[in-house]
Amino acid sequence: xxxIFYILLFVFGSSLGSFYVTTAERILTYFYGKKxxxxxxxxxxVSIATIPSHCQSCGAKxxxxxxxxxxxxxxxxxxxxxxxxxxxxxxxxxxFLFGLVTSxxxxxxxxxxxxxxxxxxxxxxxxxxxxxxxxxxxxxENLPFILFFGTIANFALFGAxxxxxxxxxxxxxxxxxxxxxxxxxQGMGLGDVFFAPVFAFLAGHPFWILxxxxxxxxxxxxxxLTRKKGESLRGKMIPMGVYFSIALxxxxxxxxxxxxxxxxxxxxxxxxx
Length: 273
What we know:
It comes from Leptospira ognonensis. This protein has 273 residues and is an all-alpha fold.
């Protein structure tokens, strides 16, 4: 019975992964890309939620058999069955990651609420990654969902809602990023000013240190390794929303490890202080 339950958790998580990756791609198309001027925003929002899964190249509807999480990609041999366009490997990889996160987070915490809320949180982080990586833009409508599911995940893990400590973290990050935004010319995007304090708030104390260090370390390393030969890093645009999102996900993994290793009492004291 345990094995069946974990299989069901994996299927649920991988299905959510498929949904969120598809949603992220549709947001790019209908709100940032070639169809951003098609009808009003309500029409485009309905299109995102209701249009059946289809090939991005030829528009052909994808049959249910090939929509199976993870395996559907390999059943189709990684190509559209109509136009034979090669599909991205990110589809099965993201589905597998979501399924793994859902099942392993439950294994480590024994909390179904944490497992599900963390999976939804990851989905909305993926949307932020897609929009910022493609257009250097963070979707503000996505932020309340991140805040909601992140707060629920924290509550499920530690049994307490954010307190004064988290508020201080939020205010500290908010003041710091607003200051950078107005003082340093082109040093910070407005989306980062809104997103970074909320992400730090969700990370909480002392995990905000891990969140901050991880995000900027990733940004520096990836930017350095992917730059063109001889290209200066000065003035180079960096999609910090991508690295903030990845860092917040790693932060929640660290929280799970603390919980799993039996150190949650230390963290609960911080939440109650």
